[in-house]
Input
Amino acid sequence: MLNRKELDPDGSPVAAFGERLRTLRDERGWTQDELGERMGYSGTHISAVETGRRSPTPRFTNRADKTFGTGDQLERQGRAVRTNALLEGFPEYVAHEAQAAEIRLYEVGVIPGLLQTPEYAAALTVGTVKREAITAEQGDERIALVAKRQASLIRTPFPLVFVVLDESCLRRPIGGSAIMDAQLARLIEFAELPNTVLQLAPFDMGIRRPLSLPVTVLTMPDRSLMSYAESAQRGHLERESTFVLPMLTAYHQLQAEATSQAATVAVISKLRKGTP
Output
C-alpha cells in the first residue's frame, strides 16, 4: 500500500497500541474508514491512532474492544498508554513538531526539551522519579524522547525556531553547577545558529507580559497553524485558527517586549560567570 507508515511497536506504548489496532483491522480486511464507521469515528481519527499521532481515549478503546470482540484487551493496553510518562496529547504534538516549518516556543521555569543538554534532562528526570511522579522506566522514555525531538530538527530545510524563555528558566538551578553551566553554554550555541532566535522575558516585564503560561505555536509547511499548551493533567493541541491566531498575536507581542537576542546572550554569559 502506498504511503503506509511503518510502525515501531517497541518505540513507545502509543506506537504499540497503534500497531495492534492496525493488525486487528488488517486481519478483517477493513479500511480505516470502514473501521471508523463501525466504531463511530472518522477514518482520519483511526489513522492518527494507528500511527501514534493520537492517544487512544477510554471511549475509543472500549469501542474498539466491542468492535473486534477482544474483551478488554485493548482497554488494558490503552491504560498502559495513558499511564506512561507523557501527557495525553503530547505524542500527537511531537509528530507535528517534527514536520513544522516554524516553531515558536515560550517556556516558564525550566529549559524546554528542544534546548536541553542530556545532563540537564537527566537531572530533571531524576527529581521527578524521586517524587514518584513517574517510574524509572518512564524517566528513561522521557530522556530518549528529548534526544529524538532534537534529532528531528536536523533536517533539510531546517525549521525556524523562535524561543522566548522566562527569566525563571535561567535562574532555577537544576542539577549541580557544572550541569547548569553546560546548559547555559548550550543556550548560547543555540542562539548562534542561523535558523534560531533566542530571547528573554525578564521578571520586570510585569504586566506587559501577554503570556503567563508555556505555549508553542507551530507553522506547518502548508502554512497552517496549530498551538500546543499543557495543564497539570494533559496537553491540548489546537488546530482551529479562531483560537490559534490570537495565540500567535500574543507571541509576537511577547517577542516585541522581550530582551533582544544579543542582550539575552549577554545575560546568560554573566550568569555563567556567576554575576547577577
Q: What stands out?
A: The mean pLDDT is 88. The domain at 90-114+155-272 is CATH 3.30.870.10 (Endonuclease; Chain A). The beta strands are 102-107, 160-166, 196-201, 215-219, 225-230, 235-238.
